[in-house]
Amino acid sequence: EPEVTQTPSHQVTQMGQEVILRCVPISNHLYFYWYRQILGQKVEFLVSFYNNEISEKSEIFDDQFSVERPDGSNFTLKIRSTKLEDSAMYFCASRQGQGDTGELFFGEGSRLTVL
Amino acid sequence: GQNIDQPTEMTATEGAIVQINCTYQTSGFNGLFWYQQHAGEAPTFLSYNVLDGLEEKGRFSSFLSRSKGYSYLLLKELQMKDSASYLCAGLDSNYQLIWGAGTKLIIKP
Prior knowledge:
With 115 residues, chain A is mainly beta. Helix content of chain A is 0%, strand content 49%. In chain A, strands 2, 4, 5, 6, 9, 10 and 11 form a 7-stranded mixed beta sheet that branches. A 4-stranded antiparallel beta sheet of chain A has the order 1-3-8-7, with no helix packed on it.
């Protein structure tokens, strides 16, 4: 069964360092999303991406964040200069679009710990 | 504004039935999802409703009333492994998922 894959599963970094989280969405999916979940809190929307551009982003997704689909398979989230409060689980998701059920398929998540 | 409301925590007994309610307000509506999430793991898909009525899938059923902005997830024959958070999420007109805070379900023997 096709699945969304994320790497790394866990990354520990120092405050101020750049981090890139990688996602490989399901191959025929057209819409991609990043969500995050701070420990013990609700899942929060960060950004959605379609047709090689951002379609929506939340207030959380400030200038420190960027997304890219560099090669037609990977979908990356970059945090330029990490802060302590960026520590969270980051989930990538994709959906097929175009007449689908709207179901989002999630990756296993990348746990980011900023020290 | 957009909002999803669900109870913070519920407790039930192994073998019993539990109903987790969710009310939603979204800008437009493209469906209502229920996800299960065990601590430290990604949410896993349980159900999707876009039309009124009950969808049954094994021990889990989900109900939607669009006129009332209301959904529930019904879990039957509860097992210890059903202890998890259950997330209600509404899909708005832009296909944004608006998440509830989740209902932590505690199953007791």
